[in-house]
Amino acid sequence: MTDVILGMGEVGETLFDLLVKRNFNCVGIDSVNSKSKNYSENQIIENPEYLHVCLSGELTEFTNIVSNWINKIKDLKAVVIHSTVKPGTTKKIQDKSTIPVLFSPVRGVHRRFLDDIKKYTKFISTDDKQIDTKIKIDLEKRFEKVDWMSTTKTAELAKILVDTTYYGWLINYAQITKMICEKEGIDFDEMWKFADEIHENLGNRPKMYPGIIGGHCVIPNLNLIEYENLEIIKKINEIYEKFKK
Length: 245
Description:
Strand order of the largest sheet: 2-1-3-4-5
Strand content: 5-15%
Number of domains: 2
Radius of gyration: 21 Å
Shape: elongated
Oligomer: single chain
Number of strands: 7
CATH architecture of the largest domain: 3-Layer(aba) Sandwich
CATH class of the largest domain: Alpha Beta
Number of helices: 10
Low-confidence stretches: none
CATH topology of the largest domain: Rossmann fold
Mean pLDDT: 94
């Protein structure tokens, strides 16, 4: 049986390596960056079992691309979307498909992605309350530490709101306090020592580094959710960027 990874960027390549290390037969498909593994164009994949989608969720045609591949690869048991996507995307793809389409966001720091994917619980979600137990068992063998969420939208929002956006929000506060400290002529690190014991005892006063939010997670992921109040994260980051110049 074969696991197919669609999209061989950082997430797809890491997932490919993880499954191979756990002795699953894998094929990696990447038509954009020519990073396909064990696959050539128009090749018929033998005994495909699971399609793991690791394409960028920012792709305009994401839903259509995934649906087309589901139709192209025959006899799949299920599809698992690992990409960060706009809430409701998995349901749209499921509505076009006759096989289960699940959503399972990735977590981890990119420079140590493989170690983090092994370390963190893999949350998997489905809108099908009667999903085949065999599929659940299969996925739990692949990811070992698994927790199931009740709907795909719950997991889609969890990735954006609880992971990347929350992280951005915390950095924003560090940016604000850094700007105040510089305006008032006081030392940022000395001031934040006041929180050390509180955080040690209560765990709710984390000191964050006041850097400029860059990369391809926090700000881009905000574009996937339509909630105008969260635009403040971008605005504070832009203010801080100008302040640092």
